[in-house]
Inverse folding.
C-alpha cells in the first residue's frame, strides 16, 4: 500500500493562492488514481478533485471548478493541488488519497493539512 504525506497548507487571505503537495512512498505511484478531499468542521467530507494514473483525466467538484487545478508528477511520486481565488468557504482540512487502478476504493490516506482562508 502507498503511504501519503501532505504539505503546503496554511493561512491565506481571501483571493489568495496556495499549492498543496502530496508525496507518496511505497508501491508504484503511477498505478494509482489520486484525489484530494476536504472536510470542514461539522460538514461531511467532500471530494474536491481527482486525477487518473497517467494524469490525462481529471475531475473537479463544482465548488472549486475553475479555481483549483490537480496535477501529478509520476517521476517525483507527487500529486499537487493548486488553489487560486480562495474563499473563506474553502477552509478545511485537505486530505490526499490513493485508489489502485481497477478498484473503486480510496484505500490510502494522508494525515491531512489545514487550509484556512480569512475574509
Amino acid at each position: 500500500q502507498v503511504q501519503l504525506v501532505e504539505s503546503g497548507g496554511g493561512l491565506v487571505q481571501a483571493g489568495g493562492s496556495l499549492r498543496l503537495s502530496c508525496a507518496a512512498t511505497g508501491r508504484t505511484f503511477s498505478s494509482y488514481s489520486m484525489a484530494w478531499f476536504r472536510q470542514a468542521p461539522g460538514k461531511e467530507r467532500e471530494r474536491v478533485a481527482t486525477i487518473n494514473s497517467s494524469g490525462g483525466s481529471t475531475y473537479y467538484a463544482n465548488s472549486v471548478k475553475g479555481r483549483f487545478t490537480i496535477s501529478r508528477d509520476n517521476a517525483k511520486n507527487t500529486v499537487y493541488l493548486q488553489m487560486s481565488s480562495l474563499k473563506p468557504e474553502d477552509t478545511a482540512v485537505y486530505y490526499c488519497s490513493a485508489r489502485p487502478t481497477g478498484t473503486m476504493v480510496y484505500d490510502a490516506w494522508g494525515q491531512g493539512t489545514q487550509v484556512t482562508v480569512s475574509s
Observations:
- The CA atoms of residues 35 and 50 lie 4 Å apart.
